[in-house]
Amino acid sequence: MSAVRLRAALPALAGAALLSATLLSAAPAQAASGGVQIYRVWFDSPGSDTRSNSSLNGEWVQIRNTAGSSVSLRGWVLKDASNHRYTFPNVTIGAHKYMKIHTGSGRDTSSDKYQGRRAYVWNNDRDTATLTRSSGSKVDSCSWTSRDGSAKYC
User: Fold this and answer.
1) Which of 13, 63, 149, 152 is most buried when burial is the number of CB atoms within 10 A of its CB?
2) Where are the alpha helices (DSSP H) in 35-122?
3) In the prediction, which pLDDT does 11 show?
């Protein structure tokens, strides 16, 4: 390569290197919310489906935060394939913590949230749990079929 071509290419190479460094330095900030994932779904509550509150709370989705810092879930949505939606209130999941979202009613704690529904959400034969940010961007999803038993690790 001639010296003239090399001098002309250097500004473009420097710009590409700067852009790459900028994109790489942005990755940790995005990874903080990307550390939240669906861990397990218990889609078939134990025993007969009586629609009692304890039976409704026998089905749940467990999420986990694999990141080293807390993540705000405010406005995030957990939904099934039929678009039954649970919108997270102003809650935070701690670093390396788990949280269960139950179908029925109960008192929210840092590790258990309740949708307050009077009917089952998760289909036993097949369904998909999807977790999205408040912006609508998909965080994670987990699908299952009746071959998976009554629970699915995602």
Assistant:
1) 63
2) 53-56
3) 46
- Please answer whether residues 39 and 119 qualify as being in contact, where contact means their C-beta atoms are separated by less than 8 angstroms: no
Residue 69 sits in a domain whose CATH number is 2.60.40.1260
| C-alpha–C-alpha distance, residues 150 and 41, integer Å | 9
Task: Specify whether 69 is located in the same domain as 106.
Answer: yes
* pLDDT at residue 4 is higher than 60: no
Q: By residue range, what is the domain housing residue 5?
A: 1-32
Condensed to tens digits (0 to 9), the pLDDT of residues 24-38 reads 333 333 344 459 999
Coil, strand or helix at 102: strand
- Specify whether 20 is located in the same domain as 41: no
Q: The dihedral of CA 136, 139, 143, 148: what is its sign?
A: negative
Q: Has this prediction a pTM greater than 0.70?
A: yes
Alpha carbon distances (Å) from 78 to 6, 118, 126? 53, 17, 16
pLDDT digits 0-9 by tens, 58-90: 999 999 999 999 999 999 999 999 999 999 999
